[in-house]
Write a structure and sequence with these properties.
Length: about 220
C-alpha cells in the first residue's frame, strides 16, 4: 500500500517514513502544500498523512481542493492544535481523522491501520430513508436530490445511521463501528462529526433527521 506524507519538517517527515516503511508501506513525501496536492491528484494512494501547517497552502486547504477535485483518498491530519474548532475546520475540508502533535508512534500506526481497514470494506446496495438517498455503488449520499459533499468518515457515519434507520447507537458503539480504535472516555469526536453532518444537511432542510437520544447516543429518524 502507498501512503503520501505531506510534511515540511524534514525530521518529522523522515520519522514518519521510517515508521511506515518498517510496517511494509511504501511512502512518498511532499514538503509543501502545492506539491502535496499535486501528488495526491496525480498519484494513487491508499492514505495521505497531511500536516496542517504547510507552506504554500495549509493542510485544510489541501484537503478542500482534493475533495473538490473528486479525490476520495482518506486523509489523516497531523495538527499541533486539537481543539473542537480545529476538528470542525478539518471536517469541513474533508479530513477523516486527526493525530495531535507530538504523537506516539503506536497511536499513529493504529489510526493508519484503522483507516485502511475501513477503506477495504465492500460497497453494498442503495438505501432510501425519506428524502435521504444513499447510493452504495457510486459512494454518494443525497438529500432531497442534492448531493452532500462528505469526507470518508462522514460518509461512513451517515451510511451506518441510514442503513439502521430508527436504531439508536451509543457513542461507544459508533466509536467502535466507525473509528475501530479506542478513544479516551471524554472524547467528543462523535458529537463533532454529528454536528458537522447536521450542518451540511441543514443546507437542504435535513438537519433534524439525525436525532439525539439524550444520555444514550444518536439515531437517524426512520
Amino acid at each position: 500500500m502507498r501512503i503520501l506524507v505531506v510534511e515540511d519538517n524534514r525530521a518529522i517527515a523522515r520519522s514518519l517514513v521510517r515508521m511506515l516503511e518498517a510496517r511494509k508501506f511504501a511512502a512518498d513525501v511532499a514538503s509543501d502544500g502545492p506539491s502535496g496536492l499535486d501528488q495526491l491528484l496525480r498519484g494513487t494512494y491508499d492514505l495521505a498523512v497531511v500536516d496542517v501547517m504547510l507552506p504554500g497552502i495549509d493542510g485544510f486547504e489541501l484537503a478542500r481542493r482534493a475533495r473538490g477535485d473528486g479525490v476520495q483518498t482518506p486523509i489523516l491530519m497531523l495538527t499541533a492544535r486539537d481543539g473542537v474548532e480545529d476538528r470542525i475546520a478539518g471536517l469541513e475540508c474533508g479530513a477523516d481523522d486527526y493525530v495531535a502533535k507530538p504523537f506516539h508512534e503506536a497511536e499513529l500506526i493504529a489510526r493508519v491501520h484503522a483507516i485502511l481497514r475501513r477503506g477495504a470494506r465492500p460497497v453494498v446496495e442503495a438505501v432510501v430513508v425519506g428524502k435521504l438517498r444513499l447510493d452504495g455503488g457510486a459512494r454518494t449520499i443525497a438529500y432531497d436530490g442534492q448531493l452532500l459533499e462528505l469526507g470518508a468518515t462522514e460518509f461512513r457515519l451517515l451510511e451506518l445511521l441510514a442503513r439502521n434507520a430508527g436504531r439508536t447507537f451509543t457513542r461507544s458503539e459508533l466509536l467502535e463501528r466507525i473509528w475501530e480504535y479506542d478513544f479516551d472516555g471524554s472524547s467528543n469526536i462523535v458529537d463533532v462529526y454529528v454536528s458537522q453532518l447536521r450542518r451540511k444537511l441543514k443546507r437542504y432542510g435535513g438537519d433534524r433527521i439525525i436525532e439525539t437520544v439524550w444520555g444514550v447516543g444518536y439515531r437517524l429518524r426512520a
